[in-house]
Amino acid sequence: MNGPPTMKNVLRALCGTSIVTLGMAAAMPMAQAHAKPALPTPTAAARAAGITTAGGAYPGWESKKASSTRQASQQMAPMYTSGNAYGVDVSAYQGSVAWGTLRAEGFQFAYVKATEGTNYTSSRFGSQYSGSYSSGMIRGAYHFALPNQSSGSYQADYFIAHGGGWSRDGRTLPGALDIEYNPYGSSCYGYGWSGMTSWIKSFVNRYHYRTGRYPVVYTTYDWWATCTGNTSALAGLTPFWIAQYSHVPTQLPAGTKSSYIWQYSQSGGLDKNRFNGTIAGLRSLALR
Question: How many CA atoms lie within 13 Å of 214's alpha carbon, on the beta-carbon side?
Answer without folding.
Answer: 14
